[in-house]
Specification:
Blueprint lengths: L2 E6 L13 H18 L3 E4 L6 H10 L4 E8 L12 E5 L4 H14 L9 E5 L4 H4 L5 E8 L3 H9 L1 H16 L10 E5 L6 E4 L8 E5 L4 E4 L1 E3 L2 E6 L2 E6 L3 E2 L1
Parallel strand pairs: 1-2, 1-3, 3-6, 4-5
Antiparallel strand pairs: 4-6, 7-10, 7-14, 8-9, 11-12, 12-13
Helix pairs in contact: 1-6, 3-6
Length: 245
């Protein structure tokens, strides 16, 4: 299964023009991004916004992720406060996959950001969340929260930004991205026991987790008597014999 570590900003001390702060809006975007990953069968974990970035790096490195995605918004130096606009995607220049991800995400952000020429990729060897993660990592400064137009653009386009990021994740991982609105659901129907969620569509595949009887689950794909689903943050296959649609 493809997997992503989501690391929205924990910087609640960075205020937005018009109210709110960086931590709040980046986590709102991550909240809106998650359903796209869920319906597309992409595993993901997420940082704890109450902990420093070093904890996000630790959690990311403890797993086997295909991408580490950090979400932030920016602020100009005091002498230019409120006057700068744009979006930057930071990457680690020693990682070809990190650079590939940055270029792909930047290309797609240009499709929705009102000033596409101001969307740039930026190499860095100083941002800890980029250089210390073992997964290919990028950090996106989505726009400037001290600029009235940029802050308003973020606030008014949460869902658009989340969908755009989801499409970039899917393109980078080679996974088609589904729409949460089109998801079909089913109900686990066993004799009372839990339903096995397996790594592959086979009774011989490893069990990743188990789902309680009566649980409503998303049916992301059907394959020869099996459904791809996601439960409690884990994606895998369940036998269609035990799912009522």
């Amino acid at each position: 299964m493809a997997s992503v570590f989501l690391s929205p900003s924990a910087q609640e001390f960075n205020p937005y023009v018009g109210g709110g702060n960086e931590e709040y809006y980046m986590n709102i975007i991550a909240d809106a991004l998650e359903p796209y990953l869920e319906v597309s069968g992409i595993d993901f974990s997420r940082n704890n916004p109450q902990k420093p970035f070093t904890d996000a790096v630790r959690l990311s490195n403890a797993g086997q992720y295909d991408l580490h995605l950090a979400l932030h918004s920016n602020a100009a130096p005091p002498s230019q406060s409120g006057k700068v606009r744009g979006s930057q995607v930071y990457y680690f220049p020693d990682s070809a996959r990190s650079q590939q991800a940055a270029e792909l995400f930047a290309q797609n952000i240009r499709k929705i950001y009102p000033l596409p020429d101001l969307v740039k990729t930026v190499p860095t060897v100083t941002l800890g969340e980029i250089v210390r993660t073992k997964a290919p990592a990028i950090l996106i400064e989505i726009a400037y929260h001290d600029n009235p137009e940029d802050a308003r653009w973020i606030r008014d386009n949460i869902d658009t930004i989340a969908e755009n990021l989801a499409l970039s994740v899917g393109e980078f991982l080679g996974v088609p991205i589904g729409s949460p609105d089109d998801t079909v659901f089913g109900t686990v129907t066993t004799q009372g026991g839990r339903l096995n969620v397996r790594m592959e569509p086979s009774v011989n595949a490893d069990i990743r987790t188990r789902i309680p009887n009566g649980t409503r689950i998303p049916l992301l794909e059907q394959l020869q008597g099996w459904y791809l689903t996601r439960y409690d943050g884990v994606s895998g296959y369940v036998s269609a014999d035990y799912v009522r649609v």
